[in-house]
Amino acid sequence: MSSDRPIRVLIGKPGLDGHDRGAKVIARALRDAGMEVVYTGLRQTPEMIAEAALQEDVDIVGLSILSGAHMALVPRIREVMDSSGLKDVPLIIGGIIPDADKQVLETIGVSGIFGPGANTEEITGFIRSLVAARDQDRPA
Amino acid sequence: MSALATQVLQGDRRALARLLTIVENAREGSDDALAALFPHTGHAHIVGITGPPGAGKSTLVNALTQALRTDQKTVAILAVDPTSPFSGGAILGDRIRMRDLAGDTGVFIRSMATRGSLGGLARASRDAVRLLDAAGYDHVLVETVGAGQNEVEIARMAQTVLVVEAPGMGDDVQAIKAGILEIADILVVNKADHPGLDNTVRGLKMMLELGHPASRTQVMSHHGRAMSVAAPVSASDDQPLWMPIIVQTVATEGRGIEALLDAIRAHRAHLHLDGHLQRLEHRQLEIELQERLRDALLARLLEHVSAQDMSVLIERIQQRRLTPNQAVETMLAGLRFGQFED
After folding, report:
1. Fold assignment, A2-137
2. Any chain B CB within 8 A of the CB of A31?
3. Cβ separation of A6 and B27 shorter than 8 Å?
4. Does position B342 have pLDDT exceeding 60, yes or no?
């Protein structure tokens, strides 16, 4: 079913850092790859992100975090999403994440982590394959 | 009844979100769910918000929704943004200005891309509004893409149309041009703290006074002489008499929002007088049926025109042996006497 409609992605910036250039570059790249990108803007709480993901029925949520607060924010966002019935919506992260933290985040259900060197083709390809895999698990 | 439709009627927001996607993509189950929910529609007040990019539509929707919420009314918002004609992708950014509404279960916001539609809305917008109506929201606010002069589709769907302008966006010739201003039930001059406010309001007032059916003949003062101007439209049962209201707002500060709410209430009350609302809906449905019929017929006809036939005809047009119109006649003739009959 992924081929007959655009993939919907939510790009959110949780926490307090006000630097959203990266988030906008990614949003633009995903748009250019034919995806519909819901951009929520700065300083989102975990609850705001989960609620927007639910209302917009997105296929995947991407978080941009540069504040260093990822270990506090990401588990909380995953938790709120899970309890809102969004267990099957994958979460990916862009930002500066130390290797030690990456492993921890992956164990709590983060599907992909992209650092400053990642290129946009890599990210769009990753999203496409994640959504295709999920669609196979969830018919209709 | 489809399970999702039942869940929507029970107030399940996740089911509503899922069903909106199914309807938007015209996926299997879409028609059944719409049919199941259709008897539950017709209760929401559908308000369209249109106007040029940057006039402050999203910010106004944010402020308006907050005001409606203090009134204990529930609000659904359908916010439409343009699809890129090149990639088919879209940035849906209207939520950025609506962050004050987060965490309120009486509000549901959905973003939608136009996916190639040109009238300021998406093809699925009308059905999406029906889902939100059936879900029980008291008001459905539909925010169009940043509209220029010709995106008047919203008038075919909304009961009350707000056209949002900002000061300094054009001279008073813009105000007498045809198009978007003509569909306004309420004209909102947002950013009323910006310079140029008086000129903008004066231009809009003049446009309204000239065009309004209340005065069949209008006497204007021109170079000190009285000049009479015939009004273009006259009032009738079919075109209820409503003098559009001009409201000045500063949406970022909430200024003028109470007056705007009063204007919306006044228009709604007007619609409920003497069956105006039924007549409006009748006209809108007539247009909708024609559109749907045209789409359905076209789709059915195209099933009988092969890509090869099409490219042969295009070649002849390029050779200047056929006009595009003659090519269409040829196709229709072929259908009439050929494949279409079987």
Report:
1. Rossmann fold (3.40.50)
2. yes
3. no
4. no
* Cβ atoms within 10 Å, residue A70: 25
Give the residue with greater pLDDT, B55 vs A135.
Answer: B55
| Region B229-233 average pLDDT | 48
Tell me which amino acid residue B180 is. I
My answer on whether B201 and B154 are in the same domain is: yes
Smallest Cβ distance to B13: which of A30, A55, A140? A55
Total tally of structural domains belonging to chain B: 3
Mean pLDDT for B163-173 is: 76
Say if residue A124's pLDDT is above 70: yes
List, in order, residues 6 or more apart from B216 with CB less than 8 Å away.
B230, B231, B234
Distance CA B226, CA B114 (A): 48
* pLDDT > 90: percent of chain B: 58
A18 interfaces chain B, CB cutoff of 8 Å: no
Question: Angle between the B257-271 and B57-70 helix axes, to the nearest 10 degrees?
Answer: 80
For chain B, give the mean pLDDT: 86
Inter-chain residue contact A37 with B102, CB threshold 8 Å: no
Same domain, B225 and B188: yes
B128 to chain A nearest CA, in Å? 12
What's the half-sphere exposure (Cβ side, CA atoms, 13 Å) at A101?
Answer: 16
Please state the rounded mean pLDDT for residues B3-7. 94
